[in-house]
Amino acid sequence: MKWVFVVCAMVALSECLIQVPLEKGKTARETLEEQGLWEEYRFKYPYNPMAKFDELFAVGSEPMTNDADLAYYGIISIGTPPQSFKVIFDTGSSNLWVPSIYCSSPACSNHHKFNPGTSSTYKNNGGALSIHYGTGSMTGFLGYDTVTVGGFAVKNQIFGMSESEAPFMQYMRADGILGLAYPHLSASSATPVFDNMMKEGLVGQVKPLMPLKYTQAKVVAICLMHAVLCVPVSVTVNGQVVACNGGCQAIVDTGTSQIVGPQSSISSINSMVGVQSQNGEYMVNCNSIGQMPDVTFHIHGEEFTIPASAYIRQSKYYGCRTGFSNGRGSLWILGDVFIRQYYSIFNRAQNMVGLAKAR
Fold first, then answer.
1. What is the pTM of this model?
2. DSSP readout, 257-284?
């Protein structure tokens, strides 16, 4: 399965169009399940999707988390001649990093590794990079080189090269991460790829978004403040409010696989749709999916409905489970479970997010 990631949509619909085919590959969780290691790993590396949005960590190091269900990757290249890497395009973080030939961790043994010595355009930065992943981490160093995304070359782009990586990265298909969020979230104050694209004029900052050629649904503009939506969001099941009565704040994040919310709210949603908690995971009889109700998010006066076929995930090893996950604090994250259903545009020029039904 392939999607197309449109980089220009991060600013607005302009004359340029950068397309990167996204592949839906096997997730780390699926690989761990096949090897009978999932139960061990999920307790050793607990899922904390809120970590990278904690303002306490906005400077210095960038906490991230083990999201074993991430499935979508795209190909970029770094250096001259180009060295190719699979990366997660993450709107919830800001750094670009890939494994390096100096990495000896098991996680680097089965991934592509960047060799700065074979690139004629590489420049050393001398700075260190440390990105924390719950109970593990990625550590490495910074350098500059040409980064090519969708055929557009960004010269002298700062990026990270890992020297050590957390063990769970061994089971992920992606080699690294390309962050698309605001510069203030960037570890080591590294300028994000997209900001350099704007600086070099590779993408435009023009007319307001109205991507009607992609959908006939109404586009909803949502205020964006440092990647956090600032409009009321409420959640209903069968017309009954089950979460965020009066409104909550939410993040639209391509680097989170599930829909994440406060534990009490997630418990209410799962209870209303008939999902039971088993050993810390919300499980359901796979034969019941066709009878389960929709979950509707009300955003800026518009309804965004997620059917059971979208919020229930099936595994041949562990049965069926919900795509709603417990977070920490009051913030919500609308991850891949939501984004797969709705076309999203992130407008950096006006700090807006546009949503419309995907077709």
1. 0.78
2. -SEEE-HHHHHHHHHHHT-EEETTEEEE
Active site residue 54: no
Q: Report the share of the chain in percent with pLDDT over 70.
A: 77
Query: What dihedral angle (degrees, nearest 10) is formed by the CA atoms of 5, 10, 12, 13?
Result: -10
Residue 358 · residue 340 · CB < 8 Å: yes
Catalytic residue (choose from 67, 69, 175, 253): 253
Decide if domain 2-199 falls under CATH 2.40.70.10. Answer: yes
Distance of CA 168 to the CA centre of its chain: 17
Contact criterion met (CB below 8 Å) for 234 and 298: yes
Radius of gyration (Cα) for the chain, nearest Å? 20
User: What are the DSSP calls for 118-137, one per residue?
Assistant: G-TT-EEEEEEEEEEETTEE
DSSP 104: -
Report pLDDT digits (tens) over 113-136. Answer: 999 999 999 999 889 998 875 445
pLDDT reported for residue 136: 56
Going by the DSSP 8-state scheme, the letter that residue 59 receives in this structure is S
What is the DSSP secondary-structure string of 278-304? Answer: ETTEEEE-GGGGGGSPPEEEEETTEEE
Q: Residue 328: pLDDT band by 50, 70, 90 thresholds?
A: confident
Where do the domains of the chain lie?
2-199, 220-357
* 208 contacts 350 by C-beta, under 8 angstroms: yes
Nearest-angstrom CA–CA distance, 117 and 100 = 11
Q: Are 150 and 194 in contact (CB under 8 A)?
A: no
Q: Cβ-count burial of 75 within 10 angstroms (0-12 exposed, 13-18 middle, 19+ buried)? A: middle
Question: pLDDT tens digits, residue range 189-238?
Answer: 999 998 898 888 877 643 333 332 223 333 444 444 444 544 557 899 99
Local structure of 182: helix, strand or coil: coil
CA 37 to chain centre: 24
Q: Give me the catalytic one of 67, 90, 145, 336.
A: 90
Run of H or E including 252: strand 240-252
- Angle at Cα 215 formed by Cα 258 and Cα 174, nearest 5°? 35
Q: What is the CATH number of domain 220-357?
A: 2.40.70.10
Answer yes or no: are the C-beta atoms of 133 and 170 closer than 8 Å: no
